[in-house]
Amino acid sequence: MQNPFQQYADAVIAPETQVRLNQPLATDSLNPEEEAFLKDLTEKLEKGGLDPMNTRTLFNRAVYDKLSESEQEATDMTAINVMGILRQIQRLWAENHHQTFQIQNLVHTVFRMKSRFEEKHGDVFII
What we know:
By secondary structure, the protein is mainly α. It has 5 helices and no strands. Helix 4 runs antiparallel to helix 5 (101-121).
């Protein structure tokens, strides 16, 4: 079976196209709410209040324990996805302690994910 990408192996990308492709997708910065979220998140990660390898540290136990079993399962699945993004943010933040466009994109993503989930299920996360 032939590799379907083989036909592009010798393709040459025009320099102006390469410059355009290297630009960040989103050039805007974080809004004040996301700035506060990033500050709170990095503080919790640095002080150990949040362990990105343990989803249980993400839960607001007072709210989580009151959820039905199906809502707890949905929360657990969402926490796995959120923690994956938090690990990426933690790694990037540790490299240079400033907002790269990658961090901004990840913060936008996790903030929206968390906000949408909490609109439906309550304040289940500590971030």
